[in-house]
Amino acid sequence: MARLGKSDLDVFPICFGGNVLGWTADRDDSFAVLDGYAAAGGNFIDTADSYTAWVPGHSGGESERVLGEWLKARGNRDEMVIATKVGQWNQRPGLSAANIKAAAEDSLRRMGVEHIDLYYAHADDPDTPLEETLSAFDDLVRAGKVRHIAASNYSAARLSEALRISRREGFAEYVALQPHYNLVERAEFEGELAELCERENLAVMPFFALAKGFLTGKYRPGGDSSESPRAEAAREYLNERGVKVLAGLDEIATLRDVPMSSVALAWLSTRPAVTAPIASARNTEQLADLLPAADFELTEAELERLASASA
């Protein structure tokens, strides 16, 4: 287990991404993959109120409901660290105090839990003063409905300002950041944002840690994976740099006899402040490709190989 920044949460080094729950994984598959994750020692599950509003026929909240059903069926709520988010669902948009309060109550009800362990601002809301957002989060923490708060999709400047305001006002502080970060998406996080997280001891949980599936090796030049809902997005990385990254992952995965997915996640785990990359699996076969990353260590030569390929 790894300590999540300045919080009192101890988490598995791979966070299970709940965006697949109720989407590419139906209820039975969702239960199976969550069972497999928990059996392997996993205890950290990430979802959001907006999951899976993008699916035709869905309205949002589906992932939280499936997760809540699983927690109730397994009776393991106290063993799990549950993270969810507010702010990007079209039915509960933004980070106003009223919306945060209402969204939190909705999420608690859908999941059938009494508190949220890690509650994210899903994205910065420039139309709402940070003081209002942070005050609302602080109210939830003081009421015992949220244990810790975190930010997703924040710039270094806004994250730094939020921390300053919380300290000035005595509000609960963000303890973690969820950025878009992986071997083929490095520029946005590396630099000022990474340095801030390291300096402030903020836990980092990268989303799209496998670049929408590209870093699994499933998508290749000339290949056909049109059956995947993420195929088109993943193919955006099929450029010269992306092919070099795949070659580096292939080489290491073959020599070390581990899945490419685990190599990509293990690389992320070596990066400054990264606590637990977020990765999804819609079935137990995909999950098996992720789990070795929890205790897989790359050599210095392998890290250099991947750094060179992804530069």
Automatic annotation (TrEMBL):
Superkingdom of this protein's organism: Bacteria
Domain NADP-dependent oxidoreductase, first and last residues per copy: 13-309
CDD domains linked: AKR_AKR9C1
PANTHER family, sorted: NADH-SPECIFIC METHYLGLYOXAL REDUCTASE-RELATED, OXIDOREDUCTASE-RELATED
Protein name stated in the entry: Aldo/keto reductase
